[in-house]
Amino acid sequence: MADRRRIIIDKLAFTGPERGPIEVSFQSGVNIIWGASNSGKSFVRKSIDYLLGGDLPTLPPEGQGVDNYLLWLTLPGGRPVTLRASALGGDIYKAEGHLYAVDQNSPGYESFSRKHVTSPNISRFLLSQVGFREALLLKNERAEKSPFSLRLLMRYLLVDETRMIDEKSLLLAYHIAITSEDKSLLKFLLTGIDGASIPQVRSGDQLKAAKEAKIELLSQMADQLRKLIDDTVETATVVAELTQAEREKAELLEVVNERQDSLDTLSAEERSLAADIRAYHARIAELKALIIRFDELASVYASDIERLDGLEEGGFLLQRFATINCPLCGALPQHQQHDHGLGGIEEQRHAVELEIDKIRVEARDLAAAIADAKSEIDSVENLIAIAEQELERHRLARKEAEQQEISARSIFKSASERCERFEVDLDNRQRLSELEQHVARINAESVRSRPRADGLDVNLDLSTSEAHELSTAVRAVLTAWNYPGAQAVHFEKGDQDIVVDGKRRRDNGAGVRALLHAAFKVGVLVYCIEKGRPHPGFIILDSPLLAYRPAEETRFGDLGDDDLALRNADVATHFYRHLNGLSDKAQFIIVENHKSDQDVVKPYHNYQFTKNPQAGRIGLFV
Amino acid sequence: MTPPQLFNTPLEAGVRALLVLDAFAPQAFDLATLSLLDYYVVHTGDAGGPPSIHPENAARAGEYFVRRHLVEEGLLLMARASLVEQVFGNDGITFQAHETATAMIDLFGSSYNRRLAEAARWLAEEATAQGNDWFFQKLRDSLERWSHEIVGGASDNG
């Protein structure tokens, strides 16, 4: 529990250009400010409230020259911050650390609006520090909503002397009667359930206006539709026509599909014919290239034969002339060969003759191959001519089929459009009758003069077990305070207040009313601590011990038996002892407007404003 | 297709050299000049003359550079048949047609050999008309150019 997220108020200070800081320090647990009246005790409470977003208090004459209010806080995690506000009002300024001046150059400087708005504000800053989420509270029984804010919560953190003894419900801040907001605030504090999920309900006048506007709008829509509908034609006739048109449309769709299929078939055949023709052309090109190569080869053969002829002749004549020119051969009549240094010429000549024969055979084969290729070209060209005729026939057939398909499709399209027109007409008739029924229904609805959100009270009231647990917490506090008859205390849902022994709080004297109020607010804090619900963890109570007022002070009614019973039970001593026992979890600042026994106050951190220049601190500003 | 040992033999080169020398007779040429003329006699088209006897394939200029040895073999063959004479003189070794060469050439009847003879005659006429030195230099230059193109270099004669 020591690591609870809570806020501790460390110091309240006032500064002015020509006045040193005037301060009041506080610590965790109990802090008491007591003493003479009009010494500035309640001004301490008002100033703290002001620095937490409350109204600007009126500075007492002794406070002349003060122009800034400062509040030192310790946030969860031991984070020290200072809040500053001007004595003239306006925004609240935050800086990190404990400082006597806060301006734009201070560390972590931020400017906060006093209201819980979208821009940075003191409410969201502090609430989020202690773990509250953004929540929406119900404002009234029509489920209008307002955001949960520090200002709303303040009644559980700070109670002034007027509210302390007020006979009105503890849940209230300033209103006269309990509203949904007051209930949903307590519900949210104790359970975390807010009204975000409940839809808002409009007021009677709003509802009436809305009803008329709705009927107006629906009637206009109906009129628009009536313009489109030929009311001389029965709906049944339209249905029959639609059925007929749909049958025609289905038949036409079949025709369209058939024609599409035959068109597809023709197109496919046409494509395959065109492909055949391309293949034939490719074959012809191939053959022509082959013939060109063959022709080249033939000319090589021809030139080789010529060249070889020349060689053969040269070889033959060379041998002859060598013999003619040979002086030996001329002298010898014998037909004997003798070498004229021309060895191998004869063999060469013979080889050449054989080679010529070989080439001639090859050239003949080649000529035959060329002839074959040429005749193949002729026959392929024939095939092309036939295929092209075929292709032309197919092309004409396809054109025809296209025309047929287009005309079938356009007939089908107009049939579809006819169907659509009938469908739209029927749809309009259907919508018109729905609108007419709707208008009749709205007309039949009666508008409640004070509409409520369904089940709102059930949602906002504490459940029996929640009320019981809260009662238990308050009873435990009163028991600790030694309150006579604490056993018979419980929180009554019907009254939204504390009932003691069957007697409502408001039916008690002022002293008891104040103490019960204090017990309730402390009880809520204790409940939150025990249940682990968020709570800022400090409470400022102005005059909870009113029972200790002097007998001659008749402002709050005569001292009754119940007031005396409190004194006799030494409630003040037990009160402080109990609160101080919560030091590690909470902080209490108690303004004592009446002298309870000095000995009761002394053990605790306390300020006495004496109004006596001879003794102690005269007052807040003195 | 055709076995290479039939073509590009000393016999073939010898017959061509004989025709060239006969056309240029009585002039004598060294081996270098005869190799040049051996190329152009079958490629007259490349010299701005009548259509070439041999097909104009792209690698033809390469022939010139590998034929020198073959041309020499052919000349020696013809010399052994006493159709060509070797002359050893101030110009080193040169070759000259023997007078019997004309008689043999007159007996050529195959169209290939007739065309060769005509091509040789055209070369001789051109050389006479333009002057040997000038004409042969031109022939050498164009061969140079082609051989550059074969190697893949850009023409330097623009």
Automatic annotation (TrEMBL), chain A:
<keyword id="KW-0175">Coiled coil</keyword>
<feature type="coiled-coil region">
    <location>
        <begin position="208"/>
        <end position="262"/>
    </location>
</feature>
<feature type="coiled-coil region">
    <location>
        <begin position="356"/>
        <end position="404"/>
    </location>
</feature>
<dbReference type="InterPro" id="IPR027417">
    <property type="entry name" value="P-loop_NTPase"/>
</dbReference>
<keyword id="KW-0614">Plasmid</keyword>
<protein>
    <submittedName>
        <fullName>Putative phage protein</fullName>
    </submittedName>
</protein>
